[in-house]
# Entry
Amino acid sequence: MQKSARLNQELIFLSDKKSFNLQDLMNEFQISKRTALRDLEALEELGMAFYSTPGRSGGYQLMQTKLLTPIYFSQEEITAIFFALKAMTIMSETPFTRSFSQIRDKLLKNLSDTSKVQVEKAQEVVVFYNIPAVSYSGNLDQLLQAILKDRVVELDYHDKKVQLQPYQLFYRDGYWFCAGLDLLTSNWWNYRTDEIDDFKLLKSLKAPYSRDELAQFAEAGDKIARGNRFSVDLTEKGKAHFLRNPYPNMQLVENKQQLQLIGTYNKHVFDFLVDYLITFATEIHNIKPDELRQAYLKRVLEMLNHNF
# Structure
């Protein structure tokens, strides 16, 4: 391991400690006592504050400071960070109030001219294409804070009052969803955030469940959502379409000459599943069960009647 990489790892290793001794570094990084002492000198130059304590049980005490110890990245790691930021800028809305372009500009100012040129060249030759948010939510940052701070929110959703303990935000096909437990009905659901009306934080109401308990509700809700089984046969193009746009409770099964998409559904997601299968066009056949096949054929006829 190069010295710069080792120093970076040592900074991370010591970041959550109050004290340490030389042997800790020697054991963790398989280095000699002489190398460990040289590394301590280099760490001090990088801004890590500590002092030595004499005696047989002595060592080093880290001084608590609000100053961030600098972390050093390789050029490859720097480029990867900027690619991650570039991927996020494609999304027109995120739960974070600070724009990613601002973060990018701030990081660029701290790079050397050589590093800037390499980052900008790499970003010119690799392009991300993704689905931007279809509609604006306006409440993502509040939902994120409610999740992080274990708070309860009240909202109107499809003309119903919901007292929600939110668990997770996720993004799919141009829409943000918030998974959580409705405390009024004990039902678990994924709420489209752009369809939430009259959102407010209930400051006086403490969240009754821990993250682990909410995870159990999520697992139970997932089992309920499974309900009925379905299967469709796929072509090779159909397989590629699924791999580009996979969904939970669905999996690809390959048996010799046959490609199958199998999964589960219930009444709440039935219409969505029909619309999802429509996106495969002519690359699926042999849809089972019959209720799903009939609904699929009905939707195709509706499309034909509408367009012709």
